[in-house]
Amino acid sequence: MIPFDDPQISTEGTHIAATLWPKRLKVIVAHINMVNYTCEYCGNTFAERANLLKHHKQAEYCLQIRGMEKTSYTCTCGKKYTRNDSLQRHYAQCQIYNDSTESSSIKADKQEELLRLVIDKYGDMVKDLQKQIAELSTRTVNTNDNNNTNGNNNNNNRNVVLQNLQPITDEDLQEHIVNLTLDFIQQGAKGYANFAESYPLKNKILCTDRARKKLKYKNPAGELTDDGRALALRFFQAISERNTEILNRAYADLHIKVQDIVAENRAGDVDVISILMRATKLQDILIKSQNAARGEDDEFVQEFLTHLTKML
Q1: Is there a single domain that holds both residue 110 and residue 175?
Q2: Above 90 in pLDDT, residue 149?
Q3: Which of 33, 54, 131, 235 has the fewest CB atoms within 10 Å of its CB?
Q4: Residue 154 in domain
Q5: Claim to verify: residue 115 and residue 174 sit in the same structural domain
Q6: Which domain covers residue 240, as residue numbers?
Q7: Residue 257, exposed/middle/buried by CB under 10 A (0-12, 13-18, 19+)?
Q8: Phi/psi at 143 (nearest 5 deg)?
Q9: Any domain includes 132
Q10: Is the pLDDT confidence value at 69 over 60?
């Protein structure tokens, strides 16, 4: 260290001391009049506020204390940077990034070229189809006349079928309950519709509009009706007792099976989760069918009617 009051300093040494003095003075003043900037999270102190702010952004141990992660900017090649401008400078030299950007551009150009080829290839075909459509539209009048005749015949035939339908009575529904099995039940709404169409409602119901799920049948009084909700209510009420009995018995069997597996310590050899999922599904079907028997017009009932109309 060069003393400022050393009488033995040469002229050259005096010049050096004079040159270094402003820098040393700055350090001395900084230590004498130091303003400490303390991190409120980790307790570290800094002489300048800029250093504290940099510490807040980049010190990993301080960020962990605050439950934060260090902000980073990652290139396609995997390199990470703490500043975005550093990443941008890296892009200019990164071969992997430039190759990926170029490949994306090439891919877009190829897709555009392929689209042009498809248009060129099938453009004439589209024009031919438009011409055929125009020609067909000129024949609409004659076709409509024929369709009206055929439509009238179809309507007459349908009316005959409707009038010959047998009424769906409570006795009919009860008579076929014995045919209800777990195979039907565990398929849910589709299985119930399959059972209904195969047994109690067979040849006693007609679909009049499949798109709108419209059907017609005769009620116990022999009157034609299209009330699907009423039919679903009667159906689920009729099967309720046997349906509950079958589901409870199947659920109990699964419960016993799980208990046996646990008792024999075979849980590692048997897929217990699939058994429990089957039991959960059976309980869900039971709840939905019971709701239908109480007259709830929910998604399950609508699904039942949808499958029923598709099967007719």
Answers
A1: no
A2: no
A3: 33
A4: no
A5: no
A6: 165-311
A7: middle
A8: -65, -40
A9: no
A10: yes
- Looking at residue 13, its pLDDT comes to 46
> Which token pair is 90?
């890296």
Averaged pLDDT for residues 55-70:
78
Instruction: Say yes or no: 111 and 169 in one domain.
Output: no
Strand-pairing partners, residue 74, are: 80
Residue 22 lies in a domain: no
The most confident of the ranges 147-161, 222-236, 252-266 is: 222-236
Note whether 285 and 243 are within 8 A (CB).
no
Number of domains in the chain: 2
CA separation for the pair 102, 295 (Å, rounded): 64
Pick from 25, 18, 64: which is nearest to 41 by CA? 64
pLDDT by residue (tens digit) across 114-123?
677 766 766 6
CA distance 93 to 82: 18
**Cβ proximity of 216 and 225 under 8 Å:** yes
Residue type, 4: F
Per-residue pLDDT, 19: 54
Q: Are 214 and 292 within one domain?
A: yes
Q: Is the pLDDT of residue 24 over 60?
A: no
Three-class secondary structure assignment of 254-301: HHHHHHHHHHCCCCCCCCHHHHHHHHHHHHHHHHHHHHHHCCCCCHHH
CA–CA distance, 111 with 117 (Å, rounded to integer): 10
Q: Residue 30's pLDDT is what? A: 52
In a domain, 25, yes or no: no
Cα(240)–Cα(293) distance, rounded to whole angstroms?
7
Q: Are residues 110 and 188 in the same domain?
A: no
In this structure, which amino acid lies at residue 254?
L
